[in-house]
Amino acid sequence: MLYSDKISEAIIVSARAHEGQYRKGSTNPYVEHPFSVALITQKYIDDEDIFIAALLHDILEDVSEKTYSRSDMQHDFGASVLGIVEDVTEPNITEPTEEAWLERKQSYIDHLAEISDIRPLIVSTADKIHNMSEIIREYENVGSRVWDFFNVDRKREIWFYEAVLEVLKAKIIPQEAIEDYEEKLTKLKKLR
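Above: the chain sequence. Below: its structure as tokens.
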């Protein structure tokens, strides 16, 4: 991926939007996640809109509309980037219960299954690969307490990653992405 003014702007937007946010159970700045996801996408496809959408992929989900809105994203990066981000954005949870979590995740899985556009599928794959990588890395630091960082138990978390993998395997995306995902999931399932 070649550097562009549009990519530079997306880096700035992502850094500002996620300012003051941290990864679950960590002191790592949250912005490390979208940057990592963007870099992972480049392993599978060289596309500026995918890279930018990966940088912005959690903004609609985790950032106040007052900070950065859908209309801001469309204005700054266009309908294509906004569409990719919307396709990978999970619905909001109104209450932090296991039932609400399950409903949110099932809605996300169902939506992924309906998508035929490879671009959001690549962003979703990279997002999940990075999330699993971070859980594995954090497990090395805190052991089984890593599961305490989540709204549900280990079994549910693994169910979600398995369900997403099944959807992705039914899609036409690079085989290398599926293999990388499966490798991380295999490692994740070994964590107790």
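DSSP finds nine helices and no strands in the chain.
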